[in-house]
Design goal:
The complex is a heterodimer of chains A (231) and B (322). Chain A has 231 residues and is mainly alpha-helical. Helices cover 74% and strands 0% of the residues of chain A. Chain A is globular. Chain B is mainly alpha-helical. Chain B has a two-stranded antiparallel ribbon with strand order 1-2. Chain B contains 14 helices and 2 strands. Classes of the chains: A mainly alpha (231), B mainly alpha (322).
């Protein structure tokens, strides 16, 4: 067993820990691992180039930027915030948990590309969350705003990941089925997807409780403020 | 018929436009960076076709271009994006346009949804509208174009204004946009270099004999750790399964394959929530949302991931050895 290629992993860990620019760190790690595994330089270059262009779909979000940028210039985020502030009964927790539910159900049906960080979180969910949080605590500082946006992004991730694994027609389930089929164990996709359901439910509950507890924290911080105003 | 390749050409055209705008502003490094990336997108299909035909020279050139991108990236200093219009102007515009502003934004998910659900049945003059591979992504690209035109209509702004707003957003994201692709390539290089096999061998070496629980724990933690390293549970799964899951858990201890597979994969997903290596879910959103810390999203989901992992592991432990 050749353990030397593991040094590529060490390059990643050290590079991220020292907060170097991630792009050269990743490329260095690939070169280190490949060279220590005994790949020749031309083969390594070809492997790097081929795998890079094979995953071009990961830059799809770039195409949303012109439309989103134009709408933001025309006041999309401001409007989302104002609308959110006017909606009675729409609390931060209800907004985020509602989004989580829709996102997870859509992912369960295989509709992962429908929502996402560029398509829905930046233009809609993040500003709405900020407005909903301002209804609770009008004196949000920059740290709060960063945390709120991060929670909105995290909610999107949790909904997507743990819904996706229940969907039978692509991705995870087919990978699992394919692996077993190669090794002589025949399973139907449904039999695998079914066992992703408990975690899908647990993930929904855990993320919802955490969102609700965050809202409670904001409310607790707001109470002394309100008492001051009242008194 | 709309192929996924057209989408890549569209992205390439936009990247080259961004390069040209940066060049005009005297931002040489930025211009070179986006131009190289644009060329990689435009030439990607040629590279793959030549590689399949046995000519790996274009792929080698692409690899050299990737290294050039890595050298350029540190010269792109991230700058916060500067608004071209004042908050007051945007508020006034928001009041004037109202809910109409939502329409183009919602068109992106809606058109994508329609393409995903009915794309296979849509046809124009007897020709299928979408090519079947990657139909949802092609639909998303179409949705973005439609939404851009709708946005110019709603905001009564010229098309080039949309493009230059898109350029400003992309420059604000900067090199972080490149990470998902690079990490996917790194995963491929790791696999080819035998990093996976080495880790599986190490996991086997520390594995205690005769305890099904310990074996399951090493398997589950291995899925998390390996996903954290590779940034992708799909890369971790075959390695951990071949190393521990299949020979020990299933064949020796009689674990239920469907449960082990599904829940083992989900343990890996918890790792995805924890790692900067899953850049498209964790680092790109941080840049997109203009968080001051690139690790803000990971911090926000850390405890969710830990709790989901613990719950999934307990369920797996209770169910898998029935």
């Amino acid at each position: 067993m050749n353990y030397w290629p593991l040094l590529g992993v060490a390059v990643i860990v050290i590079g991220f820990a020292l907060r170097f620019n991630a792009v050269p760190v990743v490329v260095c790690a690939a070169l280190v691992s490949g060279l220590l595994a005994g790949l020749h330089v031309p083969d390594l270059l070809a492997l790097l180039g081929k795998s890079f262009v094979s995953s071009r779909m990961l830059l799809m979000f770039v195409l949303t930027l012109p439309a989103i940028g134009l709408l933001e210039r025309a006041g999309l985020r401001e409007h989302a915030q104002q609308w959110m502030a006017r909606l009675r009964g729409m609390t931060l927790a209800r907004l985020l948990i509602g989004y989580l539910l829709v996102r997870e159900v859509l992912a369960t049906l295989g509709l992962m590309g429908v929502a996402g960080h560029a398509q829905t979180v930046r233009p809609l969910l993040a500003p709405m969350s900020e407005a909903a949080a301002e209804k609770i605590l009008p004196t949000l500082n920059d740290d709060d705003r960063d945390e709120l946006r991060a929670i909105a992004a995290a909610t999107d991730n949790v909904g997507r990941f743990f819904g996706e694994d229940v969907f039978i027609a692509l991705g995870a389930v087919l990978l699992i089925q394919g692996f077993y089929a190669q090794h002589g164990i025949e399973l139907t996709p449904l039999a695998i997807a079914l066992w992703a359901l408990p975690t899908a439910i647990v993930a929904f509950v855990i993320q919802s409780v955490r969102i609700w507890r965050y809202q409670r924290r904001l409310q607790r911080r707001a109470t002394p403020l309100r008492n001051e105003q009242g008194g | 018929m709309l192929h996924i390749e057209y989408t890549y050409w569209l992205i390439a055209a936009f990247l080259i436009y961004v390069a040209w705008r940066n060049l005009r502003d005297g931002q040489g490094s930025r211009a070179a960076f986006w131009l190289l990336l644009g060329l990689l997108f435009a030439g990607g299909d040629y590279v793959l076709a030549q590689q399949k035909a046995g000519n790996s020279l274009p792929a080698q050139v692409a690899g050299a271009m990737v290294i050039a991108l890595a050298l350029l990236a540190p010269r792109l200093r991230r700058h916060a994006h500067v608004d071209t219009v004042s908050t007051e102007q945007r508020l006034a515009s928001a009041l004037r346009l109202g809910h109409k502003l939502f329409m183009p934004a919602l068109l992106i998910p809606l058109v994508t949804l329609v393409a995903a659900l009915f794309g296979a049945h849509l046809s124009v003059a007897g020709h299928a509208l979408f090519a079947t591979p990657q139909m949802t992504l092609t639909g998303l690209a179409l949705a973005c174009v439609i939404a851009l035109f709708a946005a110019t209509y709603v905001a009564r702004a010229p098309l080039h204004q949309g493009l230059s707003e898109g350029r400003r957003l992309l420059d604000a994201i900067g090199w972080a946009a490149l990470l998902p692709l690079l990490l996917a390539a790194l995963g491929e290089v790791f696999t080819q270099s035998g990093v996976g096999a080495a880790i599986a061998a190490l996991a086997n070496a520390i594995l205690p004999e005769g305890s099904a629980f310990a074996c399951l724990l090493v398997f589950a933690l291995g899925m998390v750790l390996f996903t954290v390293i590779m940034g992708n549970a799909f890369a971790a799964f075959p390695v951990m399964m071949a190393g521990i899951g299949l020979p020990l858990l299933i064949q020796q201890y009689g674990a239920h394959p469907a449960i082990l597979g599904a829940m083992g994969m989900l343990c890996g997903y918890c790792g995805t929530l924890l790692t900067p290596m899953a850049a498209d879910y964790n680092l790109v959103p941080a840049a997109l949302l203009e968080l001051r810390s690139p690790y803000g999203v990971i911090r926000a989901q850390f405890w969710s991931a830990v709790m989901i992992f613990v719950a999934t592991f307990m369920m797996m432990w209770l169910l898998v050895f029935r």
